[in-house]
């Protein structure tokens, strides 16, 4: 044994080949923490002083190769400043360069995921062999940073600037065949042949058949591009990537600039450029928030995983109510492998649900994700029915009928008598109390909410709502089913609107207050889109539907009369009510705050509509000018305060879950980290002061809670 550590071992075989194996003890995956990097340094030094070695294989004893750096360390490291980060990166460059400069050929045997720093480790070796099931990539730009351990230097020299820009700016995970096609790896083999393939490459390199030194020269020398080729590669890419990334995500463009600046340099200078750019991005709010988002996602997944371990198997499900929503739920279930019955009382509704499912599967075929045969097979997992004939064998039912408590109550009590005693019943209600819906059920412990967001196939969040009598088994099974559908479930307690809609409607209340005071809704939309929302509030209301918004608003007003007694917060009619009363329901009837026309792809395209403008002017009680900061404050403060209340009321279990629910459920700007992280970024005291100033004029919707005031006084934060 050449080296033995907690995460790394190095052994020498009879052929004088050293094998460096990553196997982090006590963890299910390999991560490059500070401690592991320190071990790597020791291991490489031990290899360097060995005499007579003929080659090195770098491999993994776990299912994944290396999933990347230990992201839990990032925020602590970033907080130490630019100088610390550059020094840290230089140390890692020194270790990686030492691998690259070993006096014999080297190869990485990539058996599973090789991401971020894990991918950068493989780039240090002369050759790479890859299992057919493995994936490789540099996803750092998704965290607001860029590859800082040589990825921006080595990858372009290995696969060309164009391909490297696509991989790095896009942050994609790439399958083995794609990696082989661009030259990122040299050989792809079945997993069981990986070790033999690695040894074979070293033998061929040792015999002079493969020129490993030429490989090194290629990775350490300037990119072979003339001035015109550089301009074509980099300037074109910048324009395209800027359009895709948008103004709030600087990392993809910065990565291209780093590749461009380093293109004409030797290894050392190019790495220095990379390190400086990494440190600059790491100190940004965007990186801090996106890393926080990743950590929050891990919290959410860990909690869901605990529920999943307690859950009984969900092998057969059913959805009550076909149509667009039912068809979307059926598609999602069938596409992920759980058979589902789709029940309705009308043949035309069944056909609409099947049509929706077929359309979504057909899109997968168009994109090359499925073959026609695979689509046909998955469609067999959806069984349409007008009767309850097979419901005795169903493990879980999703009720997705019209948002009316009487209708839902009738359907739920009916189906409860036709399923097994252990069958879990769930309701896809967006606002109606789960405790209320459970009142007439014989087994309320087997009932909970399962709130999907529209469109089902795109929106990652599912709210799992626990009523007063909901049992743990029902919650666990529903969480497990949501995970099996590829969704992110977050468990919340029952209240009007649950978590996401309860938080969203104060945001709409802030919008209605702005309209009442004479703001231009089209300008408000532009300001909030500039702030980072995927669409402004007026446009969002058109997508939600004015009838849905009015109904949900009534539920919220009943539940929280002091804050949400009216959507506008003022006496008189709100802009939303004016739209509803004039049959301007939004996209569903092609007229709301905007009018809608079909674009070339048949999708609704919004256009300005003077009728809507006049209707909004008609409900304005005054005419005032608002600057951008005023608009953002009036929109964001009510949303953030309601999130605080949900946390204080125990509706949601943690700040991490609250923020992730808003990002996954309503498109809260990810680079801002969520409502509670947004308050932290402003400073709790500054946020309370802002809210108090607005509350004087605008009322209880803007009033901070007592606990939030205590946090402000004590300097406490939502995140440590």
From TrEMBL:
It catalyses: a (3S)-3-hydroxyacyl-CoA + NAD(+) = a 3-oxoacyl-CoA + NADH + H(+). CDD domains: crotonase-like. Belongs to the enoyl-CoA hydratase/isomerase family. In the N-terminal section; belongs to the enoyl-CoA hydratase/isomerase family. Its EC number is 4.2.1.17. One of its GO terms (cellular component) is fatty acid beta-oxidation multienzyme complex. This is enoyl-CoA hydratase. Pathway: Lipid metabolism; fatty acid beta-oxidation. GO terms for biological process: fatty acid beta-oxidation. Pfam families: 3HCDH (PF00725), 3HCDH_N (PF02737), ECH_1 (PF00378). One of its GO terms (molecular function) is enoyl-CoA hydratase activity. Residues 497-596 form the 3-hydroxyacyl-CoA dehydrogenase C-terminal domain. Residues 317-495 form the 3-hydroxyacyl-CoA dehydrogenase NAD binding domain. Keywords: Fatty acid metabolism, Isomerase, Lipid degradation, Lipid metabolism, Lyase, Multifunctional enzyme, NAD, Oxidoreductase. InterPro entries: 3-OHacyl-CoA_DH_CS (IPR006180), 3-OHacyl-CoA_DH_NAD-bd (IPR006176), 3HC_DH_C (IPR006108), 6-PGluconate_DH-like_C_sf (IPR008927), ClpP/crotonase-like_dom_sf (IPR029045), Enoyl-CoA_hyd/isom_CS (IPR018376), Enoyl-CoA_hydra/iso (IPR001753), FA_oxidation_alpha_subunit (IPR050136).
């Amino acid at each position: 044994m050449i080296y033995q550590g907690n995460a790394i071992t190095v052994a020498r075989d009879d052929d004088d080949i050293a094998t460096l194996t990553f196997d982090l003890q006590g963890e299910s995956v390999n991560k490059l923490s500070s401690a592991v990097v320190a071990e790597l340094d020791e291991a490489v030094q031990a290899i360097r002083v060995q005499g007579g070695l003929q080659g090195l294989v770098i491999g993994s004893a776990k299912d994944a190769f290396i999933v990347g750096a230990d992201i839990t360390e990032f925020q602590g490291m970033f907080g130490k400043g630019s100088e610390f980060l550059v020094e840290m990166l230089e140390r890692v460059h020194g270790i990686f360069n030492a691998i690259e400069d070993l006096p014999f050929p080297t190869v990485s045997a990539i058996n599973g995921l090789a991401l971020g720093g894990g991918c950068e480790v493989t780039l240090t070796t002369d050759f790479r062999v890859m299992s057919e099931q493995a994936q490789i990539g540099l996803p750092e730009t998704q965290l607001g940073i860029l590859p800082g351990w040589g990825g921006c230097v080595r990858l372009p020299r290995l696969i060309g600037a164009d391909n490297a820009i696509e991989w790095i700016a896009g942050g994609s995970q790439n399958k083995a065949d794609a990696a082989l096609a661009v030259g990122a790896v040299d050989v792809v083999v079945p997993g069981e042949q990986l070790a033999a393939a690695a040894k074979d490459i070293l033998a061929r390199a040792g015999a002079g058949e493969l020129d490993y030194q030429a490989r090194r020269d290629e990775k350490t020398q300037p990119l072979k591009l003339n001035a015109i080729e550089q301009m074509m590669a980099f300037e074109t890419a910048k324009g395209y990537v800027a359009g895709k990334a948008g103004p709030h995500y600087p990392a993809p463009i910065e990565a291209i600039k780093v590749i461009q600046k380093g293109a004409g340099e030797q290894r050392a200078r190019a790495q220095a450029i990379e390190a400086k750019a990494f440190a600059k991005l790491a100190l940004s709010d965007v990186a801090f928030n996106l890393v926080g988002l990743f950590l929050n996602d891990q919290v959410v997944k860990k909690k869901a995983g605990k529920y999943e371990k307690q859950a009984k198997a969900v092998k057969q499900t059913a959805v009550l109510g076909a149509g667009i929503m039912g068809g979307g739920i059926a598609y999602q279930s069938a596409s992920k492998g759980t058979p589902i019955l789709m029940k309705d009382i009308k043949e035309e509704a069944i056909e609409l649900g099947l049509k929706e499912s077929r359309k979504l599967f057909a899109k997968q075929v168009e994109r090359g994700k499925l073959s026609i045969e695979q689509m046909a097979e998955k469609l067999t997992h959806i069984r349409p029915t007008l009767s309850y004939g097979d419901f005795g064998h169903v493990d879980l039912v999703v009720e997705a009928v019209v948002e009316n408590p009487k209708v839902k109550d009738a359907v739920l009590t009916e189906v409860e008598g036709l399923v097994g005693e252990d069958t879990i019943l769930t309701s896809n209600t967006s606002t109606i109390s789960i405790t209320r819906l459970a009142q007439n059920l014989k087994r309320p412990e087997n009932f909970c909410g399962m709130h999907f967001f529209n469109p089902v196939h795109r929106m990652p969040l599912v709210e799992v709502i626990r009523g007063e009598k909901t049992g743990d088994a029902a919650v666990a099974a529903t969480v497990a089913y949501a995970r099996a559908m590829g969704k992110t479930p977050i468990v919340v307690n029952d209240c009007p609107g649950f978590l996401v809609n309860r938080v969203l409607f104060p945001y709409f209340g802030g919008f209605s207050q702005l309209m009442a005071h004479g703001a231009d809704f089209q300008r408000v939309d532009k300001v909030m889109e500039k702030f980072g929302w995927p669409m402004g509030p007026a446009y969002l209301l058109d997508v939600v539907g004015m009838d849905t918004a009015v109904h949900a608003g009534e539920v919220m007003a009943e539940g929280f009369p002091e804050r949400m007694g009216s959507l506008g917060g003022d006496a008189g009619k709100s802009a939303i009510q004016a739209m509803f009363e004039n049959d301007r329901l939004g996209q569903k009837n092609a007229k709301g705050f905007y009018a809608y026309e079909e674009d070339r792809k048949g999708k609704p395209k919004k256009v300005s509509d003077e009728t809507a403008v006049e209707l909004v002017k008609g409900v304005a009680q005054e005419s005032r000018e608002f600057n951008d900061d005023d608009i953002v404050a009036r929109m964001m403060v009510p949303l953030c305060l309601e999130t605080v209340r949900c946390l204080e009321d125990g509706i949601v279990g943690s700040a991490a879950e609250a923020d992730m629910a808003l990002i996954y459920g309503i498109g809260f700007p990810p680079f801002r980290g969520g409502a509670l992280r947004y308050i932290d970024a402003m400073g709790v005291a500054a946020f309370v002061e802002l809210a108090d100033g607005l509350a004087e004029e605008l009322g209880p919707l803007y009033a901070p809670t007592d606990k939030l005031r205590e946090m402000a006084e004590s300097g406490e934060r939502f995140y440590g």
